[in-house]
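Standup notes
- DV: blocked on the single-chain target, sequence here:
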Amino acid sequence: MLTQQMQNVIAVRLDKGEEIVESLLSVCRKYGVSCGKIDGLGTTQGASVCLFDTTEKQFHETYLPQFLEMTALCGSVSQQNGQPYLHLHITLADDHANAFGGHLKSAVVGATAEIFVTVLSGKIDRTFDEQTGLNLMTW
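- DV (later): unblocked, structure below
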């Protein structure tokens, strides 16, 4: 992983075999990011995406083992219990232009990933909400 901060943006290059979510958490800890926005693209060689079922109040996970193009990675950085909290969504495409996506649980980089973390001033926390079953933003 390579990182470079330029004003309020941290450029991140991940290499083959690196896990995206854990790497971004590491970047947020290293740079002290408590509020931010994430955008990226690249490839994966295995990803777990989820869909939240509002009736059951739980995530349903799908594992995508194949090599896929990461056409969009987006999300937010906040904090829960004083630690960085990532809320990430991803869209992936196969070699036939079929798209897959959802809430990103984990993904391993297939060749490279280029990700930008825009650091925002202020602080956003997360608190578990019994009614929805989700960790909602609070401030």
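- Follow-up: The chain has a mean pLDDT of 97.
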